[in-house]
């Protein structure tokens, strides 16, 4: 075992090894491979292999200064991205994504409930954007005021 370790140490001496960029590239490879099972299999596996080759090229490289510069470039971009997401604008983008996600989930819920109860009930969504509870109202009751059972918001609908 020690012999192998010595050999490896010998082989690695004077070579760059791994850094933060290595870890990031390895994560990119893994994500591409996992995603390639679901879609764009060909393209994503080509990207994964290309990134992997570059990743190992950097680890075994003897041009330490060039690799350090690449890592510094990566860290600079990473900090900028992190700073963006901590800033007001970044938080706005995050909130917008969450809101879109909630609307999509809400629309799917309405479709599901309509399939289940659509014959006898109207499915209404509470207009309060923080609540969006689904409310079942029997059909044919005419103009009615509905009170959301979750947040107690009142709204008027034709049933
Ligand atoms: Zn509500």
Structure description:
This protein is α+β, with helices and mostly antiparallel strands and 159 residues long. The protein has two domains: 11-86, no CATH class; 105-158, no CATH class. 63% of the residues lie in helices and 13% in strands. It is built from five helices and four strands, in the order αααααββββ. It has a two-stranded antiparallel sheet. Strands 3-4 form a two-stranded antiparallel ribbon. β1 and β2 form a beta hairpin. α2 packs antiparallel against α3 and α4 (64-86) packs across α5 (88-117). The N and C termini lie far apart (78 Å). The structure holds zinc ion (ZN). Zinc ion (ZN) binds at residues 126, 128, 131, 133, 148, 150-151, 153.
The biggest sheet, with number of strands, parallel, antiparallel or mixed sense and barrel status, is: 2 strands, antiparallel
Sheet with the most strands: spatial strand order: 1-2
Kindly give the count of domains: 2
Rough outline: elongated
Q: Average pLDDT value?
A: 90
What fraction of residues sit in β-strands? 5-15%
**Could you spell the SSE succession in H and E letters?**
HHHHHEEEE
